[in-house]
């Protein structure tokens, strides 16, 4: 396969170049930041884009998420290019966007996995063939993130209206008058809110306080 690398650590970059060459892959470019990787792909000429890019997440100039943003741009501009992301950490926001957009030809490995040469090469082959390769720890973190997603997303629009009015300090009777619904309907909505926010077993008036705190904390 033709491969391009973006890794700001010279030692790791050169190590990957040697490893890939020994495995029979052509390393068409090895650069130190995301912009240089995008430029290398754009300047590929008659050979065209590589089969796969291997890109670090945190690179110059800010060492935050340059690599992931470059990966997303590559997926947008050259959808046929496989993208294998390497990271010291699980960057949830961009990892989720990368994975959920299209899992064909996408991989995300923690850098510790690169030391397991066979696993790294297997992931590279899978991504190059249009498959997916996700580090088990990445999957675990993203699943944990999904499991703890915003609980307010579970509320219906009417339940959110009730909670919004409750957060303003209104009583049930006042909420009913404000939303032009019956007081019994308000009570049903509030009980549903408690259930969806896992507050059903909280005692007494504290449930209202806890629900409002959840709401104000989002």
TrEMBL record:
SMART domains registered for this protein in UniProt: HTH_LUXR, REC
Matches recorded under InterPro entries: CheY-like_superfamily, Sig_transdc_resp-reg_receiver, Tscrpt_reg_LuxR_C, WalR-like
HTH luxR-type domain mapped to chain residues: 148-213
Positions where 4-aspartylphosphate occurs in the chain: 56
DNA-binding keyword on record: yes
Keyword Magnesium included in the entry's annotation: no
A Pfam short name: Response_reg
Gene3D superfamilies on file: 3.40.50.2300
Keywords, sorted A to Z: DNA-binding, Phosphoprotein, Transcription, Transcription regulation
All copies of domain Response regulatory, residue ranges: 2-126
Transmembrane segments: none
Protein name (Swiss-Prot/TrEMBL): Response regulator transcription factor
């Amino acid at each position: 396969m033709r491969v391009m690398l973006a890794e700001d650590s010279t030692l790791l970059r050169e190590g990957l170049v040697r490893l890939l060459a020994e495995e029979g892959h052509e390393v068409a470019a090895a650069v130190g930041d995301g912009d240089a990787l995008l430029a290398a792909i754009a300047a590929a000429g008659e050979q065209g884009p590589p089969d796969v890019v291997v890109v670090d997440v945190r690179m110059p100039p800010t060492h935050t998420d340059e690599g992931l943003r470059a990966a997303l741009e590559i997926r947008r501009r050259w959808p046929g290019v496989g993208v294998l992301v390497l990271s010291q950490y699980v960057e949830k926001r961009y990892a989720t966007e990368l994975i959920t957009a299209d899992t064909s030809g996408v991989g995300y490995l923690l850098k510790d996995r690169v030391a397991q040469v066979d696993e790294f090469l297997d992931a590279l082959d899978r991504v190059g063939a249009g498959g997916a390769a996700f580090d088990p720890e990445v999957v675990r973190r993203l699943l944990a993130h999904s499991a703890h997603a915003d609980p307010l997303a579970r509320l219906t629009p009417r339940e959110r209206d009730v909670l919004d009015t409750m957060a303003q300090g209104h009583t049930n009777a006042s909420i009913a008058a404000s939303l032009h619904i019956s007081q019994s309907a308000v009570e049903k909505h509030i009980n549903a809110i408690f259930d969806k926010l896992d507050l059903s077993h909280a005692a007494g008036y504290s449930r209202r306080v806890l629900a409002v705190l959840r709401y104000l904390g989002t």
